[in-house]
Amino acid sequence: MNSSSALLDVQNLRVSFSTEEGTVQVLKGLSYSLPKGKVLAVVGESGSGKTVHALSLLRLLPPTADIEEGHVLFEGKDLVSLPERQLRKLRGARISMIFQDPMSSLNPVLTVGEQLKETILAHRKISKLRAKAAAIRLLKKVGISDAARRYDQYPFQFSGGMCQRVMIAMALALKPQVLIADEPTTALDVTIQAQILRLIKNLQQQTGMSAVFITHNLALVADVADEVLVLYGGLCMEKASVQAIFKNPLHPYTQGLLNSLVSINKKEDLLPAIAGNPPVPGKECPGCPFAPRCQRAEKRCFQTRPPLFGKREHQAACWLLEEKA
Amino acid sequence: MFNYVLRRLLLLPVVILGVTFLLFFLTQRLSPEMRASLYIKDPRQMGALEEVIQKYGLRDSVFKQYGHWLANALKGDLGYSQSANMPVGQAIKAYLPATVQLAVVTIILVVFFGVWFGCVSAVKKDKWQDVVARLFSVGGFSLPIFVLGLLLLMLFYGRLGWFSPGGYSVYTDMIVHGGDFHSYTGFLLVDSLLNLNFRVFGDVLSHLVLPAVTLCIGSFALMVRVMRSSMLEELGKDYVRTARAKGLAPWQITYKHAGKNAVIPVITLASIQFIRLLGGTVIVETIFEYPGIGRFGVIAAQQLDIAGIMGFSLMVAVLFVLGNLLSDVLYTAVDPRIRLD
Lengths: 325, 341
Description:
The complex is a heterodimer. By secondary structure, chain A is of the alpha/beta class. Chain A has helices at 50-57, 84-90, 102-105, 112-123, 128-141, 147-150, 160-172, 190-207, 218-224, 242-247, 252-259, 299-303; strands at 6-19, 22-35, 39-43, 65-74, 77-78, 95-98, 178-182, 210-215, 227-232, 235-241, 314-316.
């Protein structure tokens, strides 16, 4: 990952939530850079901070959350400190997002076409008629047949997969440089998942945009991603190219994740899993967040947080790698 | 949609039969002599009591008497109101427009300010705007209408003399009942404008303001609360996040996206309040001596004017069903999920 060609550069991002029991840090210093035209997959369990990370990139976090520290650099601007008015010009135009639940992500009382049209009109000064024509073209592009009629329909008249197609059309309406996809297929049927995934991948390749693909599903990662970042307890555990992650995982957590993938050829009675539970935000040990579940954990794993070891192309945060470095 | 309205209208006779029979049954708790005494104005004619009972069949069974009333009502004859000194139908026609006028003005004020304050309150949650709106709403909610009405009367009529209490001025009565005033709608506020008589308009308006404000404040409080909580709920939904992620301006997110969803519960509340205003502005109409249907109902009840009571409740029942129908139709206008299902 060469940061000079990076389109999006995330540096030491720390996000906390204020709760009744005090502030809870959810992201604890996440850094990565997204190269031009590449897909970065951010993989993690529930509660690892995946979605919070995605929302913090465009400052869409709920009011209880606070970006304590860090920078998100995009075209020389720091999105963390950019005034709201300027950030609004980037949202949806240069950096777009699609979300987990497409049904609830669309407004139930506005037509699909209206929601698509207003996105275009928010960023382009064109006539409403031309915006409508553009919206219908977009609907066709994401594989919605009979687009002109569908334009006037409401989200509840669409299936989940169709809603996600609309969301994708909306995200790509202004040809953004970066697409952030927060678990775009999780809420969909398995058969639809593959279709949507292929659609995103195709459109990404056609337009040459970069994408941050957030998922908990390692199997998807192999299909779409160029690079992988493994997130656990708000920290980056390992980042590498997709080949390296699958062939030579360095971090015990990544190894555990890959072990729990079930092969279609083998018959297994008990599904392999990593013992224990992910850390509860706010109640972690000062050391490596994975230490309590790690079979190879030593004393210092619990006390001191390991930095990222290894070369630029393949890094992992584990004390086991210290000697090699 | 058409089927839906039709089904609702079919319900109308059922509700009306139920309400009127129940009331009729209750009036029968009074002895025939008591009911007959209403027709006798002069104590010296007390001997004619039995004659009246015989004439109107007041000793017959409840069902027979009710059937008699119903048959007449279907023919359009609701009986003669002793308290208003005119046929019940004519009394309703004379008093209802003033109440409708009051209710419409009130509900417009309530919805406009309620939605506005509720929106601001939700968007500026926990800021000073929210605190002010909430204080106002709690205050309005806890102040009984008869206290508020009297306070306003004392202040704006007694002290400041801005508005007039009691019925319309003699001038207005003369003009309205004189030959030149053409009654287009029955609503004096509209008719006076159509007749280009601004003095009548001003008089009617000045009689409307205090009752409308009094009625408004109690309903307004509830409206603010409903709108605020509804808006807060909508602002936390996923589609609002999508709208922000698309780069829409804050006003578009608040009013076009969240607002359109948030007003749905307000419609129900507004139509319930409107119906209540039509049938139950009794207290306010009494305090301000406003010549509306509520006052007619109260006087009829006080004087045991059974035909008047029955006519009044029949009217309320009809309005109730129609009001609910109106709210359902309004629903479909904002919510496509209902409209297209």
